[in-house]
Amino acid sequence: MISSIVTHPGGAHKDDFLACAVLLTQAPVAIQRRDPTEADLTDTSVAVLDIGHQHDASLHNFDHHQLPRDHVPTCALSLVLQHLGIYEDSREFCSWLEVAEWFDCRGPADTAKWLEMDRETLGRLNSPLDITILRRFGTQTLHKPGEPIWEIMRMIGQDLVDYVTNLRTRLDFVAQHAEVWTFDGFKALFMPRTDPIPDEASSGLGYHVGKLGLENEILALVYPDSRGTGYGMRRFNDDLRIEFTLLEAETDVHFTHARGFIAKTSSVEVERLKELVSLAYRKV
Q: pTM of the full predicted structure?
């Protein structure tokens, strides 16, 4: 059992913040921001994150700074996710994770070069959320349950873990039920209504298209409308060959977005749904 978490003092970064946040889902304990002692590093009840020059999951020590300079970018968050057995899924589902690893291990200049952008553009991606939350985390030496930053951290960690684990389950569900429809010149992915219906009926469909290797063939997604008894339809990868405003005159289509990327219909008959998707197709 983990009784406390220790991470480095001074300026805080995304990797130590998120590593602590994820570990809070397993052990909702106080976070101390200080240098670890030798006793801390040998005590399995003390988790030491992003400091200590040790990576030993059996002792709950998760530091990466002792790794060789040319080691694949790996941060404290990477090590915690590996410990929880969700690292590979996290890398697959969270496109920001690899960027965070690069930024922490290689710095902003090399990360910008790797992303094929200039450093100034990379800096423009920051927001007050990044700045304020990390600054508030960094200015305190102790964070305890019930305090605002600690509670936000636990929420972030829980949402991340839930997203990764639930999406894997969702993808398995999609693979079991989804169908590929073939039209003249394109394809669509259809998710039938099930009982019970998932909270986010369209969740995971895009990932499933990628798994099928049909990114260049599937132009539309059709899925149960979670707010009604009909179906939602939307472009895949915002392909402009699908234009749902072409369905505005259809009596069973009760919503089309002005930009043409999404529509909703009360129809539940498969053949009618196929007809609507076909009508929304245009050659650009």
A: 0.80
